[in-house]
Predict the structure.
Amino acid sequence: MYRWVDHTAEVELEIRAATERDVFADALAALAELLAVEGDATEERRIAVRAPDRPALLAAWLEELVFLAESEGFEPVRLESIAVEGNRLEAVVRGRHGDPPPLVKAVTYHRLTFEPCDSAYCARVVLDV
Amino acid sequence: MSELPIERVDDELWQIPPSARPGMRVPARVFADADLLAAIEQDRSLEQLANVATLPGIVEAAMAMPDIHQGYGFPVGGVAATDTPGGVVSPGGVGYDINCGVRLLALPLDAEELGKRREPLVHEISRRVPAGSGGKSAQRGVSGAKLDRVLEEGPRALYEDLRIGTAEDLHMTESGGRLEGAEPALVSPRACERGKHQIGTLGSGNHFLELQRVDRIYEESAAAAFRLHEGQVTLLIHSGSRGLGHQVCTDFVKRMDAVLGRYGIELPDRQLSCAPVDSPEGRDYLGAMAAAANFAWANRAAIAHRAREAIAQVLGQGAARETVQVYDVAHNVAKLEQHGGREVCVHRKGATRAFPPDHPDIPPEYRVAGQPVFIPGSMGTASFVLAGRPGSMERSFGTTCHGAGRRLSRTAVRKQVEGGELRRRLEDQGIAVRAPSARGLAEEAPEAYKDVERVVAIVERAGLAARVARLRPIGVVKG
């Protein structure tokens, strides 16, 4: 489950999910909403990222999706599979080729969190738009 | 909503004392009047400014201009000078859009003479300058540009290799359009990949091209030096370093975040990640940032070139040839400058250099008037041409504001304004509008911004810069 939080200049995303995997899946879904992705998934990308901790891994995950959208026009639709081990994430993302709208410039470390909360996981990330 | 204690220093300056929060090394100061301060206190911008005051080696104060608003890490409108050596450099203190800035062109005709050619000119500019942050439609950068040359030389590379721009354009650009010490090899392959087709593209968000009419002159002699007169048509270009700059910042926020422990640095916000100016990480960042800054100046030069092509198409070759560049200023950058008899690293994040008359770093033609500064308002209000004043050197490390400053979030403004209705309203005001999306147009509605006249009045009363001319929009091309 994710929601957008009011931010004067940028876009702040808050996620609360039952598992770590779902945090990453929700982050993908939020980005797809922001990019207004519509249509069937016809392509696939394998993504592998590393980071020193969970919050940075979430930022790295979103950065990779933003890069693919900007450089290849790859619009993410859904998470096919994901494995998170230690500081490494490997995933297969289903999506489509398009001309994603101009929105996210960068994924910031401002107030970045990803931690257990009340038998779930809570995360927050601010996107520079 | 800020709960930090803040005290009035004088009519235009407020201060959060270092005792307000653990870790603050210097005060946090804001240029504002009481009403603007009340608005500023509604978001997290003062908390962010207090965080900046914790940076190692920060000198005198963390400062903010009256257009301050909540950003990430640094607030937008923030200024911080750090000692060299001894202090840090923070990529977040420059921001992702390295050398985002504005360039003003002055056309050789008045709005009255432009007449019915206004709409075709706006259309032709929008047709020639690609907008949007990514995707094929936004990637039609100028062909033939050599990226390494651009990173090292800035717009001079485009001028020498492709005859884009003029020698006078280079002269009328902050730092001549080239920061010393640029290191193309330190710009990552991913950053190059993102930027390689984007030279001459506008970008998204609040980036724009605005056709304007000079509707008021405040200081005749400075306006004459800037080659501006009442009624004249001008074109303001607002863009930055595109995906290349965004990636450089991303790369170095991460790299410095990983070595904070090595330098014993503790921060209240990871986005403030930093390293000593004279460390390998600090030096590398300054080299990569300079390359990205040069790329941004080249980008604005290429956009100006495409705008001149549009002017040639609609108004004739003579009009394009006689369109001059008043100046080009950065508002997201870190520079090593002399202040108070020592070298400091001045971070300007949504803030503009505003050197006063006689400063050696401004073109000789402007030594009497002071450095030109351009303050975009919003697409339905006015923009201002200012000139730097001595107070900027005494009070704000040679800096003034950069815009009106956001007041409402994008979500909040979309609840109040519908894109189609806004377009009609602007056209009723005599402003031709081109925008890639109604949503993007609504997000940049005049309602989203503070009153630019008030912001400018404060920097003038504080002695940082003086009003020279006011510009009213007659056409807008949105990013």
User: Anything to note?
Assistant: Chain B touches chain A through 50 residues (CB under 8 Å). Residues 7-407+449-478 of chain B form a domain with the tRNA-splicing ligase RtcB fold (CATH 3.90.1860.10). The mean pLDDT of chain B is 95.
